[in-house]
Amino acid sequence: MTRHYTLIAAAILTLVTGNVSAREGGAGQHGMRMADHPKHQRQNFSEKSTRTLANGKTVSRETVQTVNDTGFTRKTTLTTPEGKTGSREVVGVIDKEAGTMTKTITATKPNGETSQHSITHKLQKGQPSPTTPE
Fold first, then answer.
1. Into how many domains does the chain fold?
2. Alpha-carbon distance 4 to 94, whole Å?
3. Which domain holds residue 84?
4. 14-40 pLDDT, tens per residue?
């Protein structure tokens, strides 16, 4: 893969992961954190998109999220014009007794490099679980 395509793929993967973090509770375009929205709850979804670059080659992205009583899993896969793939998977697990949700994020770049980190959030009392309908 040429450096140019690597940079394009990295930029698109950054956009994909940036958009996903806005759904996770980051500041969205309206300046309100989704976690602060009173009606916020995760839902199952899947979406696919394909972008055609100026040179006629395509980049595609697919995201699938599944939700259950104990958390959620969301995986996004990006395919470069050369057919290489990068991915980002977020697994959220709710511990109702502790009142926490732990998210583990695993990213794999198109060159095969992987990284992983976890973060635990305290759920606010009186708020519905992010995965449970009201």
1. 1
2. 41
3. 3-122
4. 555 554 444 444 444 444 444 554 455
